[in-house]
Design brief:
Number of helices: 3
Structural class: mainly alpha
Radius of gyration: 32 Å
Helix content: 55-70%
Shape: elongated
Number of strands: 0
Order of helices and strands: HHH
């Protein structure tokens, strides 16, 4: 199910700028919080990538669906042995064993 447009706007307009601001604060002003800042940057990157994928899914869902054309090739196999003839069947099985 695609993400509603309102949620996308909230993520892009509110959450992403807050994540970037927090990252800048922790990296350049926080000093000892560098590990936390790296984790937070990873979360920000995840949000950006998730939004990109959500946009692609929305575009794919909006595109018209085309049925694939599958070629069907049929040919007569031609039986090499009569399966009703038990003797011939057992003889063929014995041939394949050896």
């Amino acid at each position: 199910m695609p993400m509603p447009r309102g949620k996308r706007l909230v993520v892009l307009a509110v959450i992403l700028p807050l994540a970037i601001a927090l990252h800048v604060y922790l990296v350049w002003l926080g000093g000892g919080w560098r590990i936390f800042a790296l984790v937070e940057a990873g979360v920000g990157l995840f949000v950006v990538l998730a939004m990109r994928d959500a946009r692609r899914l929305d575009e794919r869902a909006a595109a018209p669906h085309r049925e694939p054309k599958l070629p069907w090739t049929a040919k007569e196999l031609g039986a090499r042995i009569d399966v009703q003839d038990k003797e011939a069947l057992w003889a063929k099985l014995d041939e394949t064993k050896n």
